[in-house]
Amino acid sequence: MRKFMINVNGKSYEVEVEEIREGTTVKPAAAPASPAAPKAEAPAQAAPKAEEPKAKPIAAPAGATTVSAPMPGTILDVKVKEGDEVKKGDVLIILEAMKMENEIMAPQDGKVVSVAVSKGASVNSNDPMIVLQ
After folding, report:
1. By C-alpha distance, which of 72, 71, 76, 103 is closest to 90?
2. Structural domain boundaries of the chain?
3. What is the rounded distance in angstroms from the CA atom of residue 131 to the CA atom of residue 14?
4. Residue 106: which of 126, 133, 75, 74 has the closest Cα?
5. What would the pLDDT profile of 106-132 be if each residue is shown by its tens digit?
C-alpha cells in the first residue's frame, strides 16, 4: 500500500493505492490510518477488463520515415499492410482521439516497410505506427 497526496482544485487529498502485481495475492489492508487531509472516496473496484492491445516497438531501417501518432488515441482502422506502395497524402490509419476520427496520411511517397499497430490498439503521442521507405 502506497500513500499519495493529491491536489484537486486547490484541495489536498490523502489517498492510499494498493499495487497489485501479476501472480500475487491481495491481502486485506490494515485499519486505515488517520487522514491528514480529507480522503477521497475510493470508487467501487471494477471487474478486471481485458488488456487493450498496445503498439509494438519497431526498428526503422536507415533512411526510412517513421509515421508516429500525433496524439493519444485508439486505432480504428489500418488501411495499409507491409509491402504496399503509397503516395503522399494516402490515408494510412484512422485514429480515434477525443471522439473524433483522424486520418493519418502518408507524408511522402514510399513503400510500407513495417506496421506497428493493429485495429483496437491504443497509442500515445509520438508512438511509432508505420515505417515508410
Report:
1. 103
2. 1-42, 65-132
3. 45
4. 133
5. 999 999 999 999 999 999 999 999 999
At residue 35, what are phi and psi to the nearest 5 degrees?
-75, 145
pTM above 0.70, yes or no: no
Strands 73-78 and 11-17: unpaired
CA 42 from centre of chain: 24
Measured in whole angstroms, the distance separating CA 133 from the mean position of its chain's CA atoms is 26
Name the residue among 68, 74, 73 with its Cα closest to residue 114.
68
Count other C-beta atoms under 10 Å from residue 26's C-beta: 9
- What's the CATH code, domain 65-132? 2.40.50.100
Type of residue numbered 102: N
Q: Is 19 or 113 the better-scoring residue by pLDDT?
A: 113
Contact between 70 and 104 under an 8 Å Cβ cutoff? The reply is yes
Residue, of 9 and 94, whose pLDDT is higher: 94
The residue ranking higher by pLDDT, 91 or 61, is 91
